[in-house]
Amino acid sequence: MPDVDDRLTDAHVAYLATQMLGRLATVDRDGRPQNNPVGFRYNAQLGTIDIDGLDMCRSRKFRNLATNPNVALVVDDIVTVRPWRVRCVEIRGTAEALVDQPPSRHGASGEVIRIHPTRVISFGLDVGGE
User: Fold this and answer.
1) φ and ψ at 63, to 5 degrees?
2) Quick check: 120 and 90 in contact, CB under 8 A?
3) How many Cα atoms sit within 13 Å of 122 on the Cβ side?
4) Domains of the chain in sequence order
5) Could you report the average pLDDT of every consecutive run of 10 residues in the chain (130 residues)?
6) pTM of the prediction?
7) What is the CA radius of gyration of the chain?
8) How far is CA 35 from CA 72, 80, 123, in A?
9) 59, 53 in Cβ contact below 8 A?
């Protein structure tokens, strides 16, 4: 059974720190969903998830936020196949499309998608003492 929270917990943050890639779902102005692989980082100061990259302002996901700020980010992995063990964190929330931000890494542009979590669903994080 999944765990549901209204914010990121220490267990969520610890798991996210072990992962490099997630999938960000946005919705375009016509109501069509779009899903993209993205790198991300936890912003401990704000309690948000920040996503940046090369020419972020030219991406559809960035432009989609102008008409619909609702997003979902899924981060998951397969720990073992036998037995089948999957870990997952889904972060739903509202996102801001920010410009003129200091790049977090070499090659990143000054645009950031900042997700403010409103609902966090997770499973498999506490199995085996992790």
Assistant:
1) -65, -35
2) yes
3) 21
4) 3-129 (2.30.110.10)
5) 89 96 96 95 96 89 96 97 96 95 75 96 75
6) 0.91
7) 15
8) 9, 26, 21
9) yes
